[in-house]
């Protein structure tokens, strides 16, 4: 148990995966707040605009879920819990992957800007998940 706790505490601010996770968490919190406050703007940046003003409520619903998705990682980061962070972060890859597929199904391959945003986010999260799970603590330090 002591080894596990010591290993857990070795991961933190000197780790690349820590900072990537924090950046993604804060980024999705920002996106969520923007969806809550300005749902039309959030929808345009997502890649699919609303058809009418009443659709904006769905942006607010998406926004609170985005805020939660970012906040859920913060206690794990604060407590330097690498493995739980890895599991939560890895399961969250489904979100930008699904976003990519949704934008593709609506806008097609021609919307490279929004497809790239969702695709690159998923790719960064996949790489970071690898770092969180498999990188030796020493090789993961920045």
TrEMBL record:
Pfam families: DUF4267
Record keywords: Membrane, Transmembrane, Transmembrane helix
Listed transmembrane segments: 16-37, 85-103, 115-135
Superkingdom classification of source: Bacteria
Protein name per the record: DUF4267 domain-containing protein
Native organism: Arcticibacter tournemirensis
């Amino acid at each position: 148990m002591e080894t596990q706790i010591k290993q857990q505490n070795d991961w933190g601010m000197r780790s690349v995966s820590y900072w990537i996770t924090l950046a993604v968490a804060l980024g999705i919190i920002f996106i969520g707040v923007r969806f809550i406050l300005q749902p039309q703007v959030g929808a345009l940046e997502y890649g699919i605009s609303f058809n009418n003003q009443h659709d904006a409520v769905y942006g607010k619903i998406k926004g609170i879920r985005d805020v939660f998705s970012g906040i859920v990682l913060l206690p794990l980061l604060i407590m330097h819990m690498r493995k739980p962070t890895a599991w939560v972060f890895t399961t969250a890859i489904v979100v930008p992957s699904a976003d990519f597929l949704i934008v593709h199904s609506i806008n097609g391959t021609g919307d490279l800007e929004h497809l790239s945003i969702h695709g690159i986010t998923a790719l960064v999260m996949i790489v970071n998940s690898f770092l969180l799970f498999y990188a030796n603590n020493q090789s993961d330090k920045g």
